Amino acid sequence: MKTFALLAVAACRKDGGAEVAPETKAATVASGVSSASSTLAAPPPTAAKAGNPALLAAGPAPALGCLAWSESRKAVACLSGATSSVGASEERTMTYLGITEPARKVASPIGAADAKAVNATLAQYGFATLDGPKTPLKAGTPAHFGTTTIDWSRKLTNKGGDNQAPTYETKVTASCAEGRTASIWREAIEGETSTITVRPFGTLLVVEWRADIAREGEVGQEHRAALVDGQTCKVTKN
Predict the structure, then answer these.
(1) I need a labelling partner for 112 at 20 to 30 A (CA). Which of 2, 13, 33, 181 fits?
(2) Pairing of β 128-131 and β 65-70
(3) Residue 127: which pLDDT band, with cuts at 50, 70 and 90?
(4) Residue 132 near residue 119 (C-beta atoms within 8 A)
């Protein structure tokens, strides 16, 4: 299996959350990508279902993605990781962005011990199941959420060839209040088709990146998440 090239990332904690210092200059849009502003209206803030605690059941693992929000802690819980048809490998990690709780790797199918431990953490911090739609982004078209703009650019870095899929660089940035900017992700992956979505919680934004992978002899999926503070442009990601 070919590994993807990591072009530029901040130093990350292995226990489930890396904080990226905001930049003070405007983010640069990758060459050849349109920077026209999105005409989509910002959706109303997402809410968690009141009185509906988030639970992770033992058994088949749910789809990778963010599952729960804690309004009291302003934090999100996400099941992130990667799956691959090569060796039928699966790696899933429950991460908590916005609190200092360590990440926890969970097996698939999810065992009773993992489910009990994750559910105890969700209850401890007041997490409830996410409600409301996500806003999908369009590459090359910035999307505005109040005073925060999320921009996704996509650039071909290797056209591929016989038995090799094309490689695209994905770059996602945030522009926040008072001219602050921050890089969320910048990474090149062979054979990916990406979907990037945003859920607003007031001035906080939950940004998710799902990459569906199709290479010679391999199909799979990767999921990442980030919590962006629209006031300070601080980014916490798994």
Answers:
(1) 13
(2) antiparallel
(3) very high
(4) no
